[in-house]
Design goal:
The protein has 413 residues and is of the alpha+beta class. It is built from 16 helices and seven strands. Helices cover 45% and strands 9% of the residues.
Length: 413
């Protein structure tokens, strides 16, 4: 291999290369010569870009010889200075980690392993959702390395998801999952910036949820008892969420010790794993209290959980999910040609909030029961239309005519 000669100012001089072999020679590393036409040890050039050849330790402590690009070096003199600086940093153990940026498919494993070790960093449900989204990103990105993830590739992913009729809200959550992984990569000094920086989330129209009626709740519960071997537990689970507005997973983690019979309250999220990480007390209403008392009579004597796992064996663990029972219930109703629409566990929470609003309960009180941190703003926006009749009754009290107010003494007399 013929070394590159440099002029007195350090810039490479023209090198005679055969025309038919030009492309091949441009892609090879060539030694750089000093002003006396002697090779500069450890310094190489390719396509006018300078490299230092150094023995460095990788992240596992193994020493390897690598060619390191000398960013910003435009002449042999500048490249020599940059190489000597790296050599000094190596001797003083201040050399930054020099490694190839990992692929997205590999780094995501590192990302999730961190949260397996740091238990309280993220909720398990959040991690599961991120894993689902990252699986899609890896399928889309293939062998792409973190530093090669571009805005164009992200937009291509978004376009494909939209083309598959995936809602804008879901696609936005997918982008957030990728952003969280790349933020961690920035903290690990693997990349310098986020490729989605400045991107605006997709706009979407939130579909208005139809009002769920109690006869639908009853129908699902009765079908579950007939169709599933865990039907009674499933029915109790559906009714409890419908009468207190608790979320799917936090309901499964409820213990009998969370029920305060004296104060007539049930504490939801006492384990700190609720969506907001906080617990709240839901005051008994007539149906909630009656249902809890009925369940208490039938409770499993060997378990602390309100919904113990049917397959718990000698270990006292709570049920993980009643999804199979829900599917069996809906299939049974479909076979019986009874309408249940697309009933989900979240419909139970929607049922509770809807009837709280229509019962005239203050939004702030409802917000506390269902763990909304906005003081009832979201409930007012989402469920305000349900209180139309009550608002009309209040409007009738408005009087624009002059009103004569009697002195307090006369009023008492």
């Amino acid at each position: 291999m013929k070394p590159i000669e440099t002029a007195s100012n350090g810039t490479p001089e023209n090198v005679t290369i055969k025309t038919d072999n030009l492309q091949q020679r441009r892609q090879t590393y060539q030694k750089v010569l000093d002003g006396r036409k002697q090779p500069i040890r450890g310094l190489w050039v390719r396509n006018s870009r300078y490299y230092a050849r150094l023995a460095v330790e990788d992240t596992s402590g193994v020493t390897k010889v690598r060619r390191i690009p000398l960013e910003g070096a435009r002449t042999a003199r500048e490249a020599t200075d940059a190489m000597r600086k790296l050599q000094t940093q190596r001797e003083e153990n201040e050399l930054p980690v020099l490694k190839q940026t990992p692929k997205l498919k590999d780094y995501k494993e590192t990302y999730f392993k961190f949260f397996e070790l740091v238990k309280d960093a993220k909720r398990p449900a959040t991690i599961q959702k991120e894993k689902g989204a990252m699986k899609l990103w890896v399928e889309h990105m293939g062998e792409t390395r973190l530093n090669k993830i571009t805005r164009a590739k992200i937009n291509d992913f978004i376009a494909k998801r939209q083309g598959a009729k995936i809602s804008g809200r879901t696609v936005n959550l997918d982008v957030i999952a990728l952003r969280n992984v790349l933020k961690r990569a920035i903290e690990d000094n693997l990349i310098k910036s986020l490729p989605m920086q400045g991107m605006k989330p997709l706009k979407y129209v939130k579909t208005k949820k139809d009002l769920v009626y109690f006869n639908e709740i009853q129908a699902v519960c009765e079908a579950g008892i007939k169709a599933s071997k865990n039907g009674q537990q499933f029915s109790d689970y559906i009714k409890l969420m419908s009468f207190c507005g608790s979320r799917r997973d936090e309901t499964l983690r409820l213990k009998w010790s969370n029920v305060n019979w004296q104060n007539k309250q049930i504490t939801v999220g006492a384990d700190g794993l609720s969506k907001n990480g906080e617990n709240r007390e839901v005051d008994f209403n007539e149906k909630l209290e009656s249902h809890l008392k009925d369940m208490f009579k039938r409770r499993a004597p060997d378990s602390k959980w309100i919904f113990p796992s049917p397959q718990r064996g000698i270990d006292d663990v709570h049920a993980k999910t009643f999804k199979q029972s829900l599917d069996l219930s809906k299939n049974y109703l479909l076979h019986e040609e009874k309408k249940v629409s697309n009933f989900t566990f979240h419909d139970c929470r929607h049922f509770f909030i809807s009837y709280c609003v229509m019962s005239g309960i203050q939004n702030m009180t409802i917000a506390h029961w269902v763990s909304h941190k906005d003081g009832g703003v979201l409930i007012g926006k989402t469920y305000g239309h349900l209180a139309k009749g009550y608002k009309q009754q209040e409007a009738k009290k408005l009087n624009f005519e002059p009103v004569i107010l009697q002195p307090e003494a006369e009023a008492v007399a």
